[in-house]
Amino acid sequence: MRSRPLLVAIAVSSMLLLAACDRAEAPASRQAAVRVTTGQPERLDIPIIEHVVGRIEQTGFATLAAEVAGRITAVDVEAGDPVEQGQLLVRIDDRDYRSAVIRAESRYASLKAQWAAQKRLVKRLRQLLPQHFVTKTRLDEAQARLTQLAQSLRAAQAVLAQARHNLDRTQLRAPFAGRIQARFVSAGDFIGVGKPLLSLSSSAGMHARLPFPETLAARIRIGQRVLMHRSDSNETVEGNISELTPRIDTRTGSFVARVDLPADKIDALWRAGGSVEADVIIETHPNAVVVPEAALVLRPSGYVVYVIVDGIAHERSVKPGTFLDGRVEILRGLRGDERIVLDGAAYLSDGARVQETGEA
Which of 53, 59, 306, 327 could form a disulfide with 313 if both were Cys (CB 3.0 to 4.6 A apart)? Predict the structure, then answer.
């Protein structure tokens, strides 16, 4: 009979113990889930970009100088005027040069007549020599005179060509189509050989001159794609690197890349001397794993992303790469097919329960 109270006591003790265990486990089982938004990583081709600021330059530029001395009689253009190739720009007094041409033509014509007459004489003497009507000495003298006249004729021809060339130089014409950038002389000025008259920029196009630090010398190559815009505009123009300087500037520690600007894509505001901002795509990471920046959390141990499995957030250590307008490339730590936490990730810890409220 004594065993019954003992059994009752044991049963009561067991019930109390079970109740205590239930109370101890209740907080964990009833832990509130963190409300989060979720999503999946993307697979994208990620461009690796180097940003530089350069200058716009005219592809063709020339300072036109006087090739003969004289007084300016007319300047037919002003700064800013468009010109066509071969268009007359400046005229120099040509009276002395015309006189020189006339004298050279007269001299050349006289010598040519003498040379022709002497040539006929030599031919006749050669015909008479076998008949002993002339001596060999007479023929030799005539031949020597013919040779002398031929040399004088060639010299006179060269003088005539030079005189005509100098006459042509009294009219300065545009070597290529473009626009007058500056005018340095006016009608009435007396100028010497080499005196600058005008500066002319080509209408063939412009290019961007982009300086890069020498640390990028192995990564910048001809043909790379470049996205450019003026400093006062966000309108983008695309081009490719067409030329690289062969050496590093020892003063600045940089080298220069040239990018031709497409003539059909630029307007009148793309002016030589203006600044240009450029993004050079130096390489591309194909099919990279990309997540929104909100998914990336910095912990004392490094960057992590929270991956959801059966309503539980699991901390995943990752290595970020390039940051791109609110997104970030993940180089290591994600396969790309996981479901990850976006908004609310910063409030999580490893093993926390989550409640998905939608996709961001």
Answer: 306
